[in-house]
Amino acid sequence: QVQLVESGGGLVQAGGSLRLSCATQGNTFGMSVMGWYRQAPGKQRDLVALIFSSSSTNYADSVKGRFTISRDNAKNTVYLQMNSLKPEDTAVYYCYAQTIGLRTYWGQGTQVTVSS
């Protein structure tokens, strides 16, 4: 059974940095797409960043230039380096993964809180 295990969330002051990690367990074929979504209280879950097996990336406009997504294919792990954090980045961040066969998986979520 595939599981996505997230780590790295927490509380940080505005302007600070955090690094999220998401490791895939139970998958032996690799993920074609990995990434991060976030959901603030009372809002829908929105895309933050995606990275494909080709290493191409896609970012939400609100995080471009501040967040960097990367992956270690050998470890089936994806990272999100978040710099210059703003209070509006406060949300639960969810790891996302999709197999070549288009099956999708979600992590349990990790809280990121940015204080002003």
Task: Kindly summarize this structure in a few lines.
This protein is 0% helix and 55% strand. The chain is built from no helices and eleven strands.
Describe, in plain words, how this protein is organized in 3D:
It is a single chain. With 116 residues, the chain is mainly beta. A hairpin with a 4-residue loop joins strand 5 and strand 6.
Profile the largest sheet: 7 strands, mixed
Q: By helix and strand content, what is the structural category?
A: mainly beta
- Could you list the spans in which at least 5 consecutive residues all have pLDDT below 50? none
Number of helices: 0
Overall 3D form: globular
CA(first)-CA(last) distance: 40 Å
The proportion of residues in beta strands is over 45%
Radius of gyration: 13 Å
Write down how many β-strands occur, each being a DSSP E stretch of 2 or more residues: 11
What does the average pLDDT come to?
94
Helix share bin: under 10%
SSE run: EEEEEEEEEEE
Write the layout of secondary structure elements.
Blueprint: E1 3-7, E2 10-13, E3 18-25, E4 33-39, E5 45-52, E6 57-59, E7 67-72, E8 77-82, E9 91-98, E10 104-106, E11 110-115
Parallel strand pairs: 2-11
Antiparallel strand pairs: 1-3, 3-8, 4-5, 4-9, 5-6, 7-8, 9-10, 9-11
List keywords for this structure.
single chain, 116 residues, seven-stranded mixed β-sheet, four-stranded antiparallel β-sheet
